[in-house]
Amino acid sequence: MTDGQERVRPSGVWATAVGVARVRARESEREDALFRDPLAQAFATAGDPGASSPPPPADEAARRRRLGVAFSVVVRTRFLDDLLGQACASGIRQVVLLGAGMDSRAFRMDWPGGTRLFEVDTAAPLDFKASVLRQERAVARCERIAVAVDLREDWPGALAAAGHDPAAPTVWIAEGLLIYLPEDAVELLLARIGARSAAGSRLGLTLGSRGVIERFGADAVPGSAASLWVSEMPDDPVAWLAGHGWEAAAHTLRERAAAYGRPAGTPPQRDEGPGGLISAVRR
Questions:
Q1: pLDDT at residue 263, as a whole number
Q2: What is the pLDDT at residue 115?
């Protein structure tokens, strides 16, 4: 970015999206990468000039937590990539990314003709993202529509004004989002999604596993991602989503990682519960 260009610095909750970009950039460098994100390094570097060499964790426990979060980001990214591919193969041509952050799927995935992808987020991250995309001369592989609105406000109205058609099936993605929302806000978000979902729509969610806030948030640095987590998955996410009109399946990170040839390096926890990677179809 040249000196003459305005730099929009990350701030607040959405700055964690830059950290996610950093993880995706590192994964993309692996020979056995589960996905390739050619824009991730640009997002990470623009948002954090020290992204290539973040400070080392203070202790072994912190190092393990960082590795755990990175592992989660990598596996969930591949999981949702696959879900989107399957949704498009079923004929869906509307995609909505809620809390899109530094998501680059519009640019890195192969989309069928006629696909419209809506990125919903507040103006600050979308402006930052636009500045990086201009710098990289990135060209979307589908019709990409940025919708600048706070998810606490009338985002369904903003989405409708941007051209979303609730009569046609949609694939909705809420990646790394619900863990930051209190329970009542999660319920409202699901109700609003359901109201704009035709039969056959798809849903991809990531949910905070039971106990994750206690494990990661107890000594989290103020302002860090973990310090802002407030919501974990319900005891039975499949039944919970059935109550919202979705036929869902829950998958664990461990299960999906093994399927991708990237098994978890830690032993399973005793009485490991249902997973926080959710795929669902609108009934």
A1: 92
A2: 98
The answer to whether the beta carbons of residues 117 and 144 sit under 8 Å apart is: yes
CA distance 163 to 118: 9
Q: Looking at residue 3, what is its pLDDT?
A: 35
What is the DSSP code (8-state) at residue 200? T
φ/ψ of residue 99, rounded to 5? 65, 55
Arithmetic mean of pLDDT, 48-70: 68
E-only strand ranges, 104-229:
116-121, 143-148, 171-174, 202-206
230 vs 122, higher pLDDT: 122
DSSP letters, 27-39, are: HHTSTT-S---TT
- State which H helix or E strand residue 43 sits in: helix 40-47
* More confident site: 94 or 269: 94
The pLDDT value given to residue 2: 38
More confident residue, 160 or 265: 160
The β-bridge partners of 248 are 280
Give the angle subtended at the CA of 72 by the CAs of 68 and 77, to the nearest 5°.
Answer: 155
- 229: closest CA among 183, 174, 278? 183
Strands (E), 126-257: 143-148, 171-174, 202-206, 246-251
Using CA of residue 141, residue 147, residue 150, residue 156, what is the dihedral sign? negative
CA distance 218 to 211: 11
